[in-house]
Backbone:
C-alpha cells in the first residue's frame, strides 16, 4: 500500500461548489489557516481568478491581502492556484501579457503550486502556460487531464492528450481532474492504467473528483489502490454535496485499506469546527452526501452552475424554465462539438440554452461567448460542430473578427490607460475588472473601514465578550454578539 498525501480544497473549490464562490472572506481565511497549516497537507488550494474577482465584487476585499494573510499564517504548507490558462477573471480570452503579470504577482505574494488545466485539452497551450509559470517563479506546476463523458472523450482520446504533456520540462507531475464528479470506481480501474501507460517520464499521481454523484469517496479510494498518491478533499461544512470527499472520513477509509496518511486529525477538526461556526453565523449551507442520480450523466451540468441558473431564472421571473434549459443544454453541447462542461464552457452552454428556450427558437440569438468559442479563441473543439450553428456564428460581425491569440495588449498599454504609478496588483485588477468594482474595493480600505474590521476580528477572537462600545465624544458605535454567535 501507499503513503497518501492530501490537498485541501475547502477555501477554493468547496467555496465555489457550495457557497457560490462568495462565502469565504479574508477574516475566515485568517481564522482557519493556522490550523490548516498544522494538518500536514501536501498543499492547500486557495484561489482561482474567480475567487479573486468575488473578493472584490461581493466583499470589497483586496484579494492580494487575502493571499498574503494565508501566506503569513501557513509557512509550512504550499499554497496553490488553479488556472485554465486562457482566461483570468474575465470570461473572454485574456492577453498573454496580462496572464504573465498575474502569474508573476501570484508567485510574488505566496503561491508556489499551480494546477494547469485546459478544458479544451489544448495541450500545447497548457505547456506554454506551464513554461510561463516556471519562468516567473512557481516552484511546482501540475498539468491536468480533464475527465468528461461524450462520444469523443474515449480512453484513446485521453491517453493521446496526456502523452502530449509527458516531455514538458516545465510540468512536474500530472493529475486527473473530474470537475463534474462523473468518474466511477469501475471507470477509474480502466482509465487510470490507460493513462499511466501513455507516460514515460511523468507520473499521474493525483486525483481531483467532485462528490456530485455521491461516488467520489469510493472512486478516490480505488485511485489510491491504483497508485495515485495525492487526493483532493475538503473539510465540513465545505465537503460533500457538489464539493469533495470529507477529509476526516477519507483518512479513516484510506487507513482501513492499508494506506498510510500522515496528518494531524485534531488540527483538521479544529479547522472544520471554525468553518462550521462561520457557516452558522453567516447562514451558509453545509454540504451533505448526495444520492446517486443517473440523469446527471446526461447533462453533466455542475451543481454550482445549476444553482446559479435557478437564481437567474427566478430574477427574470421565469423559474419554470429551469428543466427545459437543462434539457436544452444537452443539445447545445452536442452542437458545439462536445466541449467539457466546466468553467467557462458550462456557463457558455447554459447561457445559450437559456437564450434558445426563451426565444422558442434554437440559435435565433447566439451569445458572444459561444461565437468566440466557435471561431477558435479557446482552441479546436473536440468533436464535430453543427454546420448550421457554425455558419450562423461566423456570419456575425463578431464571428468575422480575427481569432484572439492573446498577444494584442502589452503592460505598457495598460500603464498608459490606468496610470504609471499604481501598484502592479492594482494594475492587474483594473485590467480585468469593471472600474467601479475596483474603486469600491479600494474605497473600503480607508482607515475607518480597516478599524472596524480590526474591531470585528478582536470581538470574534474573544467569545466570552458579549458586547463592546466605542465612543469618541461625538459618535458612539456599539456591537453586540447575537445568540447564534455572530455580531450585530
Residues:
Amino acid at each position: 500500500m501507499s503513503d497518501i498525501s492530501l490537498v485541501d480544497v475547502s477555501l477554493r473549490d468547496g467555496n465555489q461548489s457550495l457557497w457560490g464562490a462568495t462565502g469565504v472572506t479574508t477574516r475566515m481565511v485568517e481564522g482557519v489557516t493556522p490550523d490548516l497549516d498544522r494538518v500536514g497537507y501536501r498543499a492547500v488550494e486557495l484561489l482561482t481568478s474567480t475567487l479573486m474577482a468575488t473578493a472584490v465584487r461581493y466583499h470589497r476585499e483586496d484579494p492580494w491581502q487575502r493571499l498574503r494573510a494565508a501566506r503569513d499564517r501557513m509557512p509550512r504548507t504550499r499554497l496553490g492556484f488553479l488556472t485554465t490558462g486562457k482566461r483570468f477573471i474575465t470570461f473572454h480570452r485574456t492577453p498573454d501579457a496580462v496572464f504573465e503579470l498575474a502569474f508573476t504577482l501570484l508567485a510574488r505574494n505566496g503561491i508556489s503550486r499551480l494546477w494547469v488545466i485546459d478544458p479544451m485539452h489544448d495541450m500545447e497551450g497548457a505547456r506554454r502556460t506551464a513554461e510561463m509559470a516556471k519562468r516567473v517563479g512557481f516552484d511546482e506546476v501540475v498539468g491536468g487531464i480533464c475527465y468528461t463523458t461524450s462520444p469523443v472523450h474515449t480512453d484513446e482520446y485521453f491517453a493521446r492528450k496526456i502523452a502530449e504533456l509527458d516531455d514538458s520540462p516545465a510540468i512536474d507531475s500530472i493529475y486527473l481532474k473530474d470537475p463534474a464528479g462523473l468518474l466511477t470506481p469501475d471507470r477509474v480501474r480502466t482509465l487510470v492504467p490507460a493513462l499511466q501507460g501513455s507516460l514515460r517520464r511523468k507520473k499521474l499521481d493525483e486525483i481531483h473528483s467532485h462528490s456530485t454523484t455521491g461516488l467520489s469517496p469510493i472512486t478516490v479510494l480505488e485511485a489510491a489502490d491504483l497508485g495515485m498518491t495525492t487526493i483532493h478533499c475538503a473539510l465540513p461544512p465545505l465537503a460533500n454535496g457538489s464539493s469533495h470527499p470529507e477529509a476526516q472520513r477519507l483518512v479513516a477509509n484510506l487507513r482501513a485499506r492499508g494506506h498510510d496518511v500522515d496528518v494531524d486529525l485534531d488540527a483538521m477538526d479544529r479547522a472544520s469546527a471554525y468553518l462550521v461556526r462561520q457557516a452558522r453565523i453567516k447562514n451558509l449551507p453545509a454540504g451533505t452526501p448526495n444520492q446517486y442520480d443517473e440523469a446527471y450523466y446526461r447533462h453533466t451540468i455542475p451543481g454550482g452552475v445549476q444553482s446559479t441558473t435557478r437564481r437567474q431564472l427566478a430574477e427574470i421571473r421565469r423559474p419554470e424554465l429551469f428543466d427545459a434549459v437543462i434539457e436544452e443544454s444537452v443539445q447545445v453541447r452536442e452542437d458545439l462539438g462536445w466541449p467539457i462542461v466546466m468553467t467557462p464552457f458550462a456557463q457558455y452552454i447554459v447561457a445559450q440554452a437559456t437564450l434558445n428556450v426563451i426565444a422558442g427558437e434554437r440559435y435565433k440569438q447566439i451569445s458572444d461567448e459561444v461565437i468566440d468559442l466557435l471561431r477558435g479563441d479557446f482552441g479546436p473543439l473536440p468533436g464535430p460542430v453543427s454546420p448550421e450553428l457554425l455558419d450562423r456564428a461566423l456570419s456575425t460581425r463578431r464571428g468575422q473578427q480575427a481569432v484572439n491569440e492573446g498577444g494584442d495588449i502589452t503592460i505598457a498599454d495598460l500603464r498608459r490607460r490606468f496610470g504609471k504609478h499604481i501598484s502592479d496588483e492594482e494594475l492587474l485588477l483594473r485590467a480585468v475588472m469593471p472600474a467601479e468594482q475596483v474603486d469600491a474595493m479600494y474605497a473600503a480600505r480607508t482607515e475607518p473601514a480597516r478599524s472596524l474590521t480590526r474591531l470585528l476580528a478582536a470581538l470574534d477572537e474573544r467569545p466570552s465578550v458579549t458586547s463592546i462600545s466605542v465612543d469618541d465624544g461625538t459618535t458612539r458605535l456599539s456591537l453586540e454578539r447575537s445568540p447564534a454567535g455572530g455580531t450585530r
Summary: The chain is about 50% helix and 10% strand.
